[in-house]
Design goal:
It is a single chain. The protein is built from nine helices and nine strands. The protein has 225 residues and is of the alpha/beta class. The chain has a domain of 157 residues: Rossmann fold, CATH 3.40.50. The strands form two sheets. It has a six-stranded mixed β-sheet with strand order 5-6-7-3-8-9, with helices on both faces. Strands 2-1-4 form a three-stranded antiparallel β-sheet, covered by helices on one side. Strand 8 and strand 9 form a beta hairpin. Helix 6 packs parallel to helix 7. Bound molecules: adenosine-5'-triphosphate (ATP).
């Protein structure tokens, strides 16, 4: 579990998150929704130790410093070393050499060998996203933080990503954000809204047919404005 307690993050005089608390549980995908600029990426940066903040973040009761190698954050830009090949970038992401045979077991046809041999600067936005997802599937980290991973993926890749997230969450805490409600409708187990400096858990049960758009609109109508 990832536990956040009274986390506050400000940039200069602008408070983005004000004393927010939440628990993201293992075996579930915790999905964060919220308008542009609400603070989703900022929260993820705090979870990954990339921003200073007040309040606490614990990973199964331990501070980030103790578990850092088990935390795998993926940000929207999917930063890669541009002059290195896809394979070499996987090496850096995983801390070990990665063979095509390893990739093939998880890539399921969405990323081929020739693409991984190209320098990363020649990869499309969607291919970079898929490279990171392959890295995740091979690393099997305990804590996964995904900022807009589904952005830019084609139809088949989205089906693969959905199945990949279902696999990943079996032994991980997965926290994700993104604006594609129709994709996350069948991915999200727990839903949190980031708005007005706050973070609140919404009533949502995808097994009962709940829709994220309805949950979002209800929160928007009745939540803090
Ligand atoms: N380094 C920074 N310095 C100053 N302000 C920042 C910085 N990073 C983010 N902000 C501000 O913090 C607020 C939250 O930004 P953030 O990127 O977390 O939003 P978001 O919810 O991820 O948005 P989106 O849905 O557009 O990705 C915004 O007002 C943004 O301008």
């Amino acid at each position: 579990m990832i536990s956040i307690r009274n986390l506050t993050k400000s940039y200069g005089g602008h408070t983005v998150l004000n004393r927010v608390s939440a628990e993201f549980r293992a075996g579930r995908v915790s999905y964060l929704l919220g308008p542009n600029g609400a603070g989703k990426t900022t929260l993820f940066k705090c979870l990954a130790g990339l921003e200073t903040h007040t309040g606490t973040v614990e990973f199964d009761g331990r501070p980030l410093a103790d578990v850092r190698e088990h935390v795998f954050p993926v940000f929207d830009d999917c930063a890669l070393y541009p002059h290195l090949s896809g394979f070499e970038n996987l090496h850096f992401l995983l801390g070990r050499k990665t063979l095509w045979e390893d990739v093939r077991t998880v890539a399921d046809g969405v990323l081929d060998r020739a693409t991984l041999r190209k320098p990363a600067r020649a990869l499309s936005y969607g291919q970079r996203k898929k490279l990171y997802t392959v890295g995740l599937l091979l690393a099997r980290p305990s804590y996964v933080v995904l900022d807009e991973l589904a952005n830019g993926l084609d139809y088949d890749s989205l089906q693969w990503l959905r199945a990949s997230l279902a696999q990943l969450k079996q032994d991980s805490v997965v926290v994700a954000s993104g604006h594609q409600f129709d994709f996350y409708d069948r991915v999200a187990d727990d839903v949190f809204a980031v708005s007005e400096n706050g973070l609140s858990k919404l009533d949502f049960n995808h097994a009962a047919g709940d829709r994220l758009e309805d949950a979002y609109l209800a929160h928007h109508a009745h939540g803090p404005r």
